[in-house]
Write a structure and sequence with these properties.
Blueprint lengths: L8 H8 L3 H8 L7 H13 L2 H8 L5 E7 L6 H17 L6 E7 L3 H13 L5 E6 L8 H9 L3 E5 L10 E4 L2 H15 L4 E7 L5 H17 L3 E7 L7 H12 L3 E6 L2 H16 L4 E5 L3 H8 L5 E4 L2 H16 L8 E3 L3 E3 L7 H4 L2
Parallel strand pairs: 1-2, 1-3, 3-4, 4-5, 5-11, 6-7, 6-8, 8-9, 9-10
Antiparallel strand pairs: 10-12
Helix pairs in contact: 1-2, 1-3, 2-3, 5-13, 8-9, 10-11
Length: 354
């Protein structure tokens, strides 16, 4: 039998192989879980001595929904570490009257809005807060307003929705990220030439600010460099790497490439890494994960800029805890400084997974 002071909803969910939301509904006799599955979950919870803890401490009286991309396929490079930070802090706060209910979406705006509607309409769970990420606020302001009208406070990660009524946000300033990339590339490339700036979401607040910071800083650090800005097609993402190959063939003065997100960083390595390695090109990627580390150690990337997603996830749960449980005043914005990693200071994968 486990120590009942350490058992969490997430641990029960892991054993039962279901979501935290399903566990919450089962042990609180809410709708949405079949009787057989409910009995199975309750049996597991009882075996872990969770039910006694629940009766004694009246746990789960402050429910917070977390809605973020599922960390699979290309979304795993970044979001596996964001979820890791969320779960780590949640486990540390397992004795608090705070229940984190996990929801995932497939990365698309359509699925995210659909899941937000589900959360709003699921009256079996009386949530007090929602943690999510908003890439294009113009498409979400209406539903964010509806959360606010129902008394559900919004906490954002990664990118801002400044026109919304969000309570607090944890993010790395995107303008700073762009400036850091341009400062490194511009200082490493002494002569004139071209650099490629590549990404996926030009119209989002976050990525547009990265681009603005990059252009602004490059005009200071090395104004002799011309920036070629290209973006991934949503329907045909592989075309981006064909375009880069064409540019490398067309222009012999391309001196650097900056990939401003994890997905395209992996794509550069997987699709065109071999064609770049033997050329005198400074390559900067984004975020630390298994593929970017491999690319760094093999000499494909010169530097990697990390937003440190695990710290983001850890911090947002701390903010929610301070606001709802400790009744403290929280700041509107918490800024996580980015890190520039070179070969001599890049962390290893083992340290990231601990």
């Amino acid at each position: 039998m486990q120590d009942n002071e350490k058992v969490t909803l997430q641990e029960i969910a892991n054993v039962a192989k279901v979501s935290v939301g399903t566990v919450y509904k089962a042990i609180n006799n809410k709708k949405g879980v079949g009787e057989n599955k409910k009995a199975q979950i309750i049996k597991i919870a009882e075996s872990m001595n969770y039910m006694n803890k629940k009766k004694i401490n009246n746990e789960c009286n402050c429910n917070i929904a977390v809605l973020l991309p599922e960390p699979v396929n290309t979304d795993k490079y970044y979001y596996q570490f964001l979820w890791k930070g969320i779960r780590k802090r949640t486990n540390e706060l397992s004795l608090a009257n705070l229940s984190i209910i996990e929801y995932t979406y497939n990365g698309s705006i359509e699925d995210q809005k659909f899941k937000m509607e589900e959360i709003l309409n699921d009256h079996s769970i009386n949530i007090k807060g929602l943690i999510t990420n908003i890439w294009d606020e113009t498409k979400f302001l209406d539903i964010l307003d509806r959360f606010h009208e129902q008394g559900i406070e919004i906490f954002l990660l990664e990118s801002d929705a400044p026109s919304s009524e969000r309570k607090s946000i944890v993010m790395t300033d995107p303008n700073t990220i762009g400036r850091l990339a341009a400062e490194y590339l511009g200082s490493m490339i002494k002569e004139s030439g071209r650099v490629i700036l590549m990404g996926t979401r030009r119209d989002s607040f976050n990525h547009s600010q990265i681009v603005n910071g990059f252009f602004s800083q490059m005009s200071i650090t090395n104004p002799k460099l011309q920036v070629i800005e290209i973006y991934e097609s949503i329907k045909y993402p592989e075309k981006l790497y064909g375009t880069i190959k064409d540019l490398l063939t067309t222009f012999d003065d391309i001196k650097g490439i900056y990939s401003n997100n994890a997905r395209t960083t992996a794509g550069v390595y997987n699709y065109i890494g071999a064609s770049i390695k033997d050329r005198d090109i400074i390559l900067v990627g984004s975020d630390i994960f298994s593929i970017s580390l491999e690319a760094m150690h093999k000499g494909y990337f010169n530097a990697i800029i990390s937003q440190k997603p695990e710290i983001h996830g850890y911090k947002i749960i701390s903010v929610v805890f301070e606001h709802f449980i400790m009744k403290k005043e929280v700041k509107e914005r918490y800024n996580i400084l980015p890190s520039l990693y070179l070969k001599n200071n890049v962390p290893d994968l083992e340290s990231l997974n601990n």
